[in-house]
Structures are given as C-alpha cells and as structure tokens.
Write a structure and sequence with these properties.
The complex is a heterodimer of chains A (373) and B (272). By secondary structure, chain A is an alpha+beta fold. Helix content of chain A is 23%, strand content 33%. Chain B is built from twelve helices and no strands. Chain B has a domain of 182 residues: MetI-like (MetI-like fold), CATH 1.10.3720. The chains are: A alpha+beta (373), B mainly alpha (272). Chains A and B meet through strand 6 and helix 2 of A and helix 7, helix 8 and helix 12 of B.
C-alpha cells in the first residue's frame, strides 16, 4: 500500500481467522490461498463479481463445502472438520429458504427445537425474535403469505434465533427491488448491531457492501485483492484492480520522471501537462511505468485556465448525464480521451458548462493516486 | 336474436361426448332390468343387489384394493429411495445403470414383464423353494416393481427442481441430514408423493396382463375376474360395479378439487 492506511486497526481482530484456505473443483481453483482476520462485532463484506470465489468461501464457513487445505478458526476453535449442523454459525440464504410448510413462528423455532430447548423457552425466544424484526403480527402466517421484505425479516430472525457466534449473509438484498433494498440495508444493519453478532456477508453490489459493512474484502479469481474499511478501499486502493472495482476512475498511463521524498511527477502521453502527486512514490528503479488515477468527484471543471503547471487539461464537453443530485460530465480531450467529472448541482439553475463548450478540468495535488499497472 | 353456433363450442361438446358417452351408457345400462346387457327392459336396481350378493366378485374387489394399497406404499418408499440416490448423490458408479434400470418398466410391454416375472418366480421356487406358490404376494411384488418406476419418475422430477437451500438451511439450523430430509424435504415434496402413490395405486388396480401371469389359484384380482366373466358373457352386475367405481372416483376428484380451491381462496383472503 502506498498511502498510510486510514483504517482503525483491529486490536481484537482475531475472532474469526481464515488461514490459507484453498478450494479446487477438479482443475478449477475457486478459492486460492485466502487468509482473513475478522474482529468480533465486525460486519465484514466479501465483495466480488460472480465466479470470484466469494460464495464458495462463505459456504466453507457454513460447512457446506470442505476446503482442500487451510484452517478456519472461530473463537479459538478450528471448525473445518465440523459438520454444518454442529457449527455455531447460522446463515441467511439468498432465497431465504424459509420452510414453506411451516408458519413464521415454526420457522424461527426450528433451530431451537434441534437443540432440544424446553418448549416454554422456545416460545419466549420466538416472541423476542419476532419483536426484534417487528413481525409480531405475522407469527401465524405461512411464508407464501408474506412480502419480500417481510420474508427477509423472518429469515434474519430465524438465523439469529440460536444466538450464533457468526452470522452469514448470502447476497442479503439479492431478492429485493431497489427501493426496498435501500431501506432494508439499514434496517438489517441496525438489527445485527443491536444483537452485536459478528457477521460475514457476500455481495456483488459495492454500494450494498459500503452501506452495510464496516470492513470489506474485494475478491477476484479466488484471491483477496484488498481488504480494509470502505474508506480505505475507496480512497487508497492498493492496485488497479481494486481501484477499478469500486467506483469509477480516470486513469493515465505514464512514467515517473521526478521521485522526491515529498512529491512525484509523472509524464503521460495521454495528457498535455505533467501529473503531480504530493507524496513520494517508492519506485523500483528499473520500472518507472505507473498508472495515475483520480476519482471523478475530485476533479473540478472551470471555463478559465487554472494556475500552475500540473494536474489540469483542456477539453470540450462531450456529454452530460444529469442525475439530479449531481451531473456526470464527459470531457473529451484533444487526443480523444474521455475524462469523467462529477459536478454537484447545489444551485437549482446555475450557469454550468454545456455541450461542446471548451472547459478546463483540474484537481488538487493530493487527489491523485499512483498505482502499479 | 339467434346466437351463432361457434366452432369451438361444437368441438367442446364433441370432445365431451367422445370421452363420457361410453361411461354414460354404462351407467344407464347398470339400471337395466334385463339380464341381457344390450337389451333395454326398463329401470331396475336389482343388479346392485346381485352385485353385493356375489361373494366372489366382492372378494375380488377387496383383494384388488388390498394389493393396490400395499404395492402403492411399497412403490412410493422405493421410489423415494431411488430418487434420492439419483438426484442427490452426484455422479456415483452405476448411476446411469440405476437410472435406466428404474425406467425400464416404463417402456417394457406388460406381456414381457409378466412373462419374465413368472419365469423368475418359477425358477426361484425350484431353486430356493420360495415363494411356495404364486398368489397375492407375487402380484404385490410385480405391481410394486412397475409402480416403483412410475413413482421414481414423479418423485425424482420434483426432487430435482427442489431448491437445495431448504435442506442446507435445516442443516445450518442444527438438523442432521436424515432429520433434515424427514422434517423438511419430505413435507415439501408431499404433493409429489401423493400423486406418485395415486398413480401406482391406479396402475395396480388397472393391471390385468401382469397379474394374470403371476397370480395363482385363489388370488384373482378384480380386473382378472371381470375379464374372465366377460368372456363367459357379460353380466349386468359388472355394469353396476363399474358405475360404483366411477361414482367413487368422481367423488374423490370432486373433494380434491374443492379442497384445493378452498385453500387457494383462503390464501388470497389472507394476502389481501
């Protein structure tokens, strides 16, 4: 990592330890030597595209898949050899998997019954769980008589009823529509935090991961690309993969020409002016090729030429995507390259640059990032 | 104003007549007072009385029901086991062989199944001294055999499309695999089990070819009894019996329809 980490360091970061887990199917490596530390009380998101191995990793935590090698240590105990029905771990499935022949109450009580808990205690616990997810009125309903959001609450209550040490969420919002999704994300996080259970979730939706989780790991092709707080990953991606996976980026390929302790200058064919970053880059001497990256919301647009010699360029407005809260400007440079820039619409009818107008795009010295190609 | 006669309604009534006219005439002739099946001689219910007095025929009815009941039970049990093996155990050695063996009775002509079972029973009696004679027991085995084939087709197609996360959720909540299967999978696929059972039951009740190969003295099922009595000259008693069977089947269908409609209505009421 180039920039110092912004994360709070997990002092108690050893509640769940995943050590060198490998899982292969025939010749395909699904999970390739993954190690992670998850602290008690964390909501940890595994973020990745489909086929990145995130679901396989989650299923290994639940016990439905057995790793070829590696250890999973939960609260000091290696659970790899434990059957799924003996693990102190519960999962909320993507399809919720509510038992259709049982009422909401019976669904929530199912796990408790397996533990042979006394009937009166089960009844108390079920009421308590129903209250937790605000579903008291629906105790006698069958799952098919519930809406999507209600089903999710029941599924969450069912997986929390046994007070597991670890809660797993598999694409928790996958079965909901957009509007409901935003509401349920916060509600689910509230519930999980009020219970205080450690949680590992899997999602392909970066917005969902950043909203719900306090720590994120990006997975690609079976490996962890980067893990850290949402802010870490967004503001200080450690690689091109991580930078491109979350949010959008303007990228310039180039080479380092000046590399001092407190700044670096980069020459790129893709932009007229030199690029400047206000921190030193430790380059390997033989390889000066780097990628300079700057996020669209950190760039500014003006009609006047900026001061200084670094970090600006001239172009024309190629396209404007008006999104209400902000607009995405597509600026075409002389060489045909398109830059993206966000403009916040803080004024209702401000005099903003319009199509085919000549503008300057610039950004401050500490906005850019230098990444390895 | 005269309603024009539409093609579709004509075809509808034609189809209905094609399907139900034979049964209707059978029902009407069961109330015939003549002892000749084809000659109408006024209304009477005397053949129903005769039917209940005919102990041979009534015994055959009960025997058939008994065989059908037990072979349907057996077929469903074996069908569940075969379906689980075929759909849940991945690719094991001999899987495709099991699959084709289970499906074989579906495509095999009844005559061949009957004949081969007869040969097997005869040689088993010679070699093992068991079964000592052919009768209800051998019919039960024969019917369970081909009933299993049909039951497996029905049950395995349901199991195949069943979302695996139900069983996984049960195991996740602490149920061992067998418990999860009994408490979760079986109740969810219950409708498929019921239709497999009904299918096996009906096929057994209906079968005359295989049963006539493997039955022995004193083990005459209803279809065989009817078939042989028809050869001696049809008695209107058979019409009366057939009418009763149609009545029972229609009643069962009607009740099933009414129950499912009531459930549908209740669900709608709760949801709205």
């Amino acid at each position: 990592m180039i920039e110092p980490s912004l994360s709070r360091d997990g002092v108690d970061g050893h509640f769940l330890q995943i050590r060198s887990i490998v899982k292969t199917y025939d010749d395909v490596v699904a999970v390739n030597d993954v190690s992670l530390d998850i602290a008690k009380g964390d909501i940890f998101a595994l973020l990745g595209a489909s086929g990145s191995g995130k679901s396989t990793l989650l299923r290994m935590l639940a016990g439905f898949e057995t790793p070829n090698s590696g250890k999973i240590i939960l609260d000091g105990e290696d659970i790899v050899s434990l059957a799924p029905y003996r693990r102190p771990i519960n999962m909320m499935f993507q399809s919720y998997a509510l038992f259709p022949h049982m009422t909401v109450e019976q669904n929530i009580a199912y796990g408790l019954k397996q533990d042979r808990m006394p009937k009166a205690m089960i009844a108390d616990k079920v009421v308590q769980m129903l209250r937790l997810v605000h579903m008291e009125k629906y105790a006698k309903r069958k799952p098919e008589q519930l809406s999507g959001g209600q089903r999710q609450r029941v599924a969450l209550a069912r997986s929390l009823a046994k007070s597991p040490k670890l809660l797993l969420l598999d694409e928790p919002m996958g079965a909901l529509d957009k509007k409901l999704r935003n509401r349920m994300q916060l509600e689910v996080v509230d519930i999980i935090e009020s219970v205080g259970v450690t949680c590992v979730m899997v999602t392909h939706d970066q917005e969902e991961a950043m909203t719900m989780a306090n720590r994120i790991a990006i997975m690609e092709e079976g490996s962890i690309v980067q893990s850290g707080t949402p802010r870490d990953i967004y503001e200080a991606p450690n690689s091109l993969q991580a930078a491109e996976f979350i949010g959008s980026m303007n990228l310039f390929r180039g080479a380092i020409t000046v590399d001092a302790q407190d700044h670096a200058v980069i020459d790129s064919d893709e932009i007229n002016n030199q690029l400047y970053v206000s921190y030193g880059v430790t380059t390997a001497i033989e390889d000066k090729h780097v990628v300079f990256a700057v996020r669209p919301e950190k760039t500014l647009i003006s009609r006047d030429q900026p001061q200084g010699e670094y970090n600006w360029c001239r172009g024309v407005v190629h396209d404007i995507a008006y999104l209400g809260g902000h607009s995405v400007y597509h600026i075409r440079l002389n060489n045909g390259k398109i830059l993206y820039s966000f403009m916040v619409n803080s004024d209702r009818f401000a005099d903003q640059p319009t199509w085919e107008e000549q503008v300057y795009v610039y950004w401050s010295d500490d906005s850019g990032l230098v990444l390895r190609p | 104003m005269k309603q024009p006669i539409r093609f579709s309604s004509v075809m509808f009534w034609f189809g209905m007549a094609f399907l139900y006219l034979p049964m209707l005439s059978l029902v009407i002739y069961s109330f015939n007072s003549s002892r000749l099946v084809t000659v109408w001689a006024g209304w009477s219910t005397k053949w129903y009385g005769e039917l209940f007095r005919d102990e041979g025929l009534m015994a055959a009815v009960w025997r058939s029901l008994e065989v059908a009941f037990w072979s349907a039970n057996t077929a469903v049990c074996l069908g569940v086991l075969a379906s689980v093996a075929l759909t849940r155990f991945g690719r094991f050695r001999g899987r495709s062989m099991l699959h084709s063996l289970v499906a074989a009775p579906l495509v095999m002509p009844d005559v061949i199944i009957g004949l081969s079972l007869l040969l097997m029973f005869v040689s088993m009696t010679d070699v093992l001294g068991w079964p000592q004679e052919r009768g209800l027991f051998t019919i039960w085995i024969a019917h369970a055999t081909f009933g299993t084939a049909y039951a497996t087709v029905v049950i395995s197609s349901r199991l195949k499309e069943l979302d695996r996360s139900f069983v996984e959720a049960a195991m996740d909540l602490g149920a061992a695999p067998v418990k999860a299967f009994v408490q979760i999978t079986l109740p969810i696929i219950m409708p498929a089990l019921v239709s497999a059972w009904l299918l096996a039951f009906t096929l057994s009740l209906d079968d005359v070819v295989i049963a006539s190969f493997v039955s022995g003295p004193g083990a005459t099922t209803l279809p065989i009894e009817v078939f042989s009595s028809v050869r001696l000259g049809v008695s209107p008693k058979i019409n009366a019996l057939a009418t009763l069977i149609i009545l029972i089947v229609s009643l069962v269908t009607l009740v099933a329809w009414w129950l499912s409609r009531r459930k549908l209505k209740r669900d709608k009421l709760v949801r709205s």
